[in-house]
């Protein structure tokens, strides 16, 4: 090879379905990479169409649009003949191929990577290992290249299963995401002559995932004794958030360099010969970040929530948001997230006191908006609540007040917030957390109203820690200490009746969240949870409420996945369900 191979990782933020917009982003990146003297420009998995495009892959017109964009990239690449571009995209399955009669082979596309240079497609690689667990449904959409050899000679099969392309004298082996998590594809690439590996990825974030993926890929590099660059996507897409943190690992498994997390960048690095003639990575130091620390959970969660909220709002065509501010912890957190994501001028908070709203709740809400400088309005609901009660008095005659009257207050607030959303075109952010969603401790068509739920995957016990973390950090230059301490220290309450607290009807949040984690993330049975020392009556209560409130969660707003298992795509329980084990 020449003195070094200059590589640029396009850790960028595509939009699902905006094929021409993603192409324009790619062309701009190519221009910049060429000016910086890059030899190789690497884009993430399925960059041209965005990840995850889901059932769009069944639309022939969608796949045709992706094919057209790839051809446009090929033609444009003639402008930079020295630059080799690795682009992730879907490739329509050739229906004329003699596929086995098996449903796994009826997918509409391959998850492909094309190597484009000087007006030509030099090579193509198709993903072999298709994840089909958690949030992944890749066998629904893609054929595996591990079966494309049906009816072909063995030599051609091997050629199809490994793609190695030479760039400035270095033989580069290509892999797509899950291919690098198993042994065979990397081993095949080495057998085909690869001297270094390029892995393109769209790996959704969850707490601890950056550290886990790094450890897996370090082990893979040691196993095949090849250096590897991991090119990762960044950005929010519905329930998923991609954290970036692209990295380069040497053949001995040493982390050589890491790109920043939760931000777009063109990340340059070099592959050089060391004194012994072995290939190793050389960082361009000013662009490299320290790897995320596993013990600093909130420092990962906060930017994930901010990025997910910003992208959901902007990618869906909204410019500003509003939310109901109660003076409690959850709405305070959502307000702080929204300001960090969009800026104070794009956020509106509405306080809607009822007869049961404590004066300190109003005071704390006012203090928080004073700190954050957002638009703030107060709309009392006492008169509306009393009007509803009068209208229903004859129907409710002979009954005692109960949660019906409590829910009326939440639903009045929901109607008002949705009216403001409709009138002014602001996306309504809902403020429920994961613990409340699990227990059904939220009012359908009331405080569950909204288009996006930033805290949907945040346990209540973590919400307290998250608030303390944000108060201690001026996130990306934002306001430090935005949340009044009294909001964090007060006992949580829905304030829908006199002297109400959450713990009147729920276990302490530390206990509740521990039980939920054991059930949701480890699938433990009731008796196994009790065996860990939790009271049987509390375990039974939590698991019952988790089961019977599935119907509410199906009607809730989407929110970003940050835990190993989140409500939404990652949680698929039947609504009608009598299994209580």
TrEMBL record:
Q: In which pathway does it act?
A: Cofactor biosynthesis; NAD(+) biosynthesis; NAD(+) from deamido-NAD(+) (L-Gln route): step 1/1
Q: What is its EC number?
A: 6.3.5.1
- Tell me which stretches of the chain form a coiled coil: none
Positions annotated to bind deamido-NAD(+): 407, 436, 552
Domain of life (superkingdom): Bacteria
Q: Which UniProt keywords apply?
A: ATP-binding, Ligase, NAD, Nucleotide-binding
Residue span(s) of domain CN hydrolase: 5-281
Q: Where is the active site?
A: 45 (proton acceptor), 127 (for glutaminase activity), 177 (nucleophile)
Q: Which GO terms describe its cellular component?
A: cytoplasm
Single Gene Ontology BP annotation: NAD+ biosynthetic process
> Which annotated residues bind ATP?
324-331, 431
Which PROSITE patterns does the protein's record reference? CN_HYDROLASE
Picking any one GO molecular function of the record gives: NAD+ synthase activity
* The reaction(s) this protein catalyses: deamido-NAD(+) + L-glutamine + ATP + H2O = L-glutamate + AMP + diphosphate + NAD(+) + H(+)
Residues the entry annotates as binding L-glutamine: 133, 203, 209
PANTHER family, alphabetized:
GLUTAMINE-DEPENDENT NAD(+) SYNTHETASE, NH 3 /GLUTAMINE-DEPENDENT NAD + SYNTHETASE
HAMAP family of this UniProt entry?
NadE_glutamine_dep
User: What does the UniProt function comment say about this protein?
Assistant: Catalyzes the ATP-dependent amidation of deamido-NAD to form NAD. Uses L-glutamine as a nitrogen source.
UniProt similarity note? Belongs to the NAD synthetase family. In the C-terminal section; belongs to the NAD synthetase family.
The protein's name: Glutamine-dependent NAD(+) synthetase
Which organism does this record belong to? Lampropedia cohaerens
